[in-house]
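Task: sequence design from structure.
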């Protein structure tokens, strides 16, 4: 009799696992690859208020930075640099929202073939050390990384 309950329990567990939703309650499918989930959302840049003043952010409010070693609108950040400073890339055209100037928003082709958003003359990056919207921990790092203002110029505070 006990063996029957063990087998029934095992069968029930397997059945529930097979039918078990991949949903985490957020309405998203955990089995969907992150890139596929991101592709569903339109990538845009906007102007947001921060402790640095008005700066360029993505649609979620994450700060976007420029690298002063980039020249002519072309990225020079690769390897370990891109691991710390991920590029703002998008399969589709990045759009201007809330205060961002669409005339300043363009794209550049990266060496690996992806399209990176630029604002003014600056390819745009995130900083891995920023934990969420509103963080500006990348500002001034190594004297070469700066947030970008609404006018496309670098925001250099305290320098």
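Answer:
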């Amino acid at each position: 009799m006990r063996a029957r309950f063990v087998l029934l329990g095992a069968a029930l567990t397997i059945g529930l696992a097979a039918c078990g939703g991949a949903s985490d309650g957020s309405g998203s499918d955990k089995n969907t690859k992150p890139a596929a989930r991101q592709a569903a959302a339109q990538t845009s840049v906007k102007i947001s208020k921060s402790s640095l003043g008005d700066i360029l952010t993505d649609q979620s409010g994450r700060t976007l930075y420029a690298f002063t070693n980039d020249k002519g609108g072309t990225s020079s950040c690769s390897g370990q640099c891109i691991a710390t400073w991920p590029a703002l890339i998008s399969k589709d055209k990045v759009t201007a929202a809330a205060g961002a100037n669409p005339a300043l928003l363009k794209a550049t082709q990266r060496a690996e073939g992806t399209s990176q958003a630029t604002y003014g003359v600056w390819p745009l990056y995130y900083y891995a050390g920023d934990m969420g919207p509103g963080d500006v921990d990348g500002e001034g790092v190594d004297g070469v990384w700066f947030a970008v203002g609404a006018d496309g110029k670098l925001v250099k505070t305290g320098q």
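The first strand starts at residue 44 and ends at 50.
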